[in-house]
Amino acid sequence: MSTCQVCSLKADHPGVVLDDQQVCNLCNMDFAEDLLVNYRYTSEVFAEFQQAPPASGAYDCLFMYSGGKDSTYMLDKFANEYGKRVLAFTFDVPFESVHAAQNIALAREKIPATFVLDSDDDNIKLMMREVFNRPAPRKPGKYLDEKLPCVSCRTFFVLRAILMAYRQKIPYIALCADPQQILTMESNVREVVRDFYKTFGERLTDTLFGGQLEELLFEEEENLPKIVFPFIAMRHDYEPDRIVEELRAKGLYQSSPLETHCTLLPLLNYYSFKNWDCMFYKLNASSHVRSVRRNAEYDRSTFSIKFPRSLELGEVEERLGKVVLAIAAGEGERADHERELVDLFQRMGATGDAAAFVSRSFLDMRTVAADLGIRLS
User: Fold this and answer.
1) Residues 209, 217 contacting (CB under 8 angstroms)
2) Residue 274: which of 327, 221, 208 has the closest Cα?
3) Cα–Cα distance between 99 and 67 in angstroms, integer?
4) For the purposes of burial, counting CB atoms within 10 Å of the CB of 148, is it exposed (0-12), middle (13-18) or buried (19 or more)?
5) Is the pLDDT confidence value at 256 over 80?
């Protein structure tokens, strides 16, 4: 299989096309025009939010708070530096990491915001079963198709947040995607709703949300909340390592980024390898490889996880694919899989404890899949 000579993305990766020089369209910035349009819009909305006077209601914004480093960092800024009246919205994802829950508890003690916990276990599990149990997707696919389960899960609770903000007349929703994610996410509320209908159809969408989403499609624009991406303001100096250091100094973070991932990370990798022959973090890792090769002295990360400069991406991906698919099939010995996984995650930059923690979640993949009704083949 041909791979990009710059970033190592494979020629059959969803949305990727290699030119005659074996360089992919991401490295050639073929997406630049579309990305710039989204960038301008998100920049304008964030500037509007920063300058907005206090809202007429109880809150200036609803803040999507996951307990990860990015959302904890910006929630602290919103409440303690920006002086915003914040409703910190956490969706109680049934797949949440115990480390993310611990970070949320720390934030409740130290950050002056109103915290609210939302949940809907039955419907989010129903949606995830539908995503994972779908027939194999059509090739060649579109950009981010390999992350469909993750994107669907995130969109589900973003829509729950949109409905809450709409009902409570909160004008802005803050969503802490990292800088590169921002450029691939829909920022218009009405379009978020339309895209969900397109992905899941009218019948399932109305089941999942009790028919409430349709109202948003026909509401006046000025009555809909606007989505704000806070990291748009710090896109030039986004540094995952520095963010973690600052949070730990304030007693707001006790984990590594890998440890705050949800318990579905192994199944997300299974989906990516089974359907698209790539690891879940391939775009992230390729972005790192791209930045290092273009400037050997500068390896800044624009994604939430920073990979080591010495990462041999092709080797790590091949080994990870073999062990993930073997675990899914119930093949091989648990101890052998654990040794392999710990070594791979340490190569990706995890500490020994973090590598062991994430590896155990991969070893439990079949149990998690059975609990959710997800078929592994």
Assistant:
1) no
2) 327
3) 8
4) buried
5) no
pLDDT score of 299: 53
In angstroms, rounded to a whole number, what is the distance separating the alpha carbons of residues 337 and 354?
A: 16
For residues 53 and 33, give the distance between their C-alpha atoms in angstroms, rounded to a whole number. 33
Closest CA to 189 of 225, 234, 138: 225
Residue 336, pLDDT score: 98
Distance in angstroms (rounded) separating the CA atoms of residues 295 and 254: 32
> Does residue 171 have a cis bond before it (omega within 30 degrees)?
no
Backbone torsions φ then ψ of 235, nearest 5 degrees: -65, -25
Mean pLDDT across 84-96: 92
* DSSP 3-state of 58: coil
Which residue stretches of the chain are H helix?
A: 32-51, 69-80, 98-110, 121-132, 148-167, 179-182, 189-209, 213-218, 240-249, 265-276, 282-294, 313-329, 334-347, 352-363, 365-372
Q: Is 0.85 surpassed by the pTM of this model?
A: yes
Between β-strands 86-91 and 114-118, what pairing exists: parallel, antiparallel or unpaired?
Answer: parallel
CA separation for the pair 323, 331 (Å, rounded): 9
Average pLDDT, the chain: 88
If you compute the radius of gyration of the chain from its CA atoms, what whole number of angstroms results? 20
Lowest mean pLDDT among 169-183, 267-281, 341-355: 169-183
Q: Is 91 left (phi over 0), alpha (psi -120 to 50) or beta?
A: beta
The single-letter DSSP state of residue 99 is: H
Q: What is the pLDDT of residues 291-337, one digit of tens each?
A: 777 766 555 555 556 678 778 888 999 999 999 999 999 999 999 99
Q: How many CA atoms lie within 13 A of 157 on its CB side?
A: 28
59/88 Cα distance (integer angstroms): 10
Both tokens assigned to 24: 């992919």
Q: How far is CA 277 from the centre of its chain?
A: 20
